[in-house]
Amino acid sequence: MPPVNDWLPNERLAEEHKAIGFYLSGHPLDDYLPALKRKGVMTLQELHEKAERNGAVVGKVAVIVGGLQQRKSSRGNQFYRMNISDPTGQVSGMALFTDDFDSCRKVFEETLQVVMTLEGRFNEGQFDPIARSVAPIDAVVADAGGMALKIYLDEPGVVGLVANLLREAAEAAKGVRPGEVSVCLMDPTLPGEVEMTLGQSYPLNPQIKGALKSLDGVIDVEEV
Questions:
Q1: What are 63-110's pLDDT values in tens digits?
Q2: Angle between helices 206-213 and 158-172 (to 10 degrees)
Q3: For residue 151, what are the CA distances in angstroms to 27, 177, 209?
Q4: What is the average pLDDT score of the chain?
């Protein structure tokens, strides 16, 4: 019987990146990638390629979970079926078997953005990973080291919005590692790009980075 899983590389995102140098449509985990890399967390594409080379591999992968279903095996053991995705691809119908089912359930009740330990393997020629453990992604990257951000703006007035958001983050994000922030103004009325620092460190994490990117007038936010 062929495996249930269906692996699909994210060809649309790959083509966007190849054509224009960045992801136009993006993925919710994009802002986590630098911190995840520092923690040695793989992408689904990397796990797939390593399993192809070695026949099987065990690695940690950050994913978003969808279609989560609690099941019971013929032996009465509880497990999950789910779909997972990251910026490089997706797997549908993947199973999670664990000795600590209650802990996994608590994680999924908290968040569907997680880091999983996956056994990457091929079954009848098809990529057929199985999950063995799960942890909240924010807990995994909490000690990944500080970040510094460069924020690209298209008008001077946006600097105030950026500063206000960072001040609010400083009050709310207790315990988050601080980092340097610079802004790069790309107003067409200027003779060139104008870069400046904000003069102090602010708490920075992937959520704050994502919030900055959502501000009107922010062209891009780059981790440096």
A1: 999 999 999 988 888 999 999 999 998 999 999 999 899 999 999 999
A2: 150
A3: 19, 18, 9
A4: 85
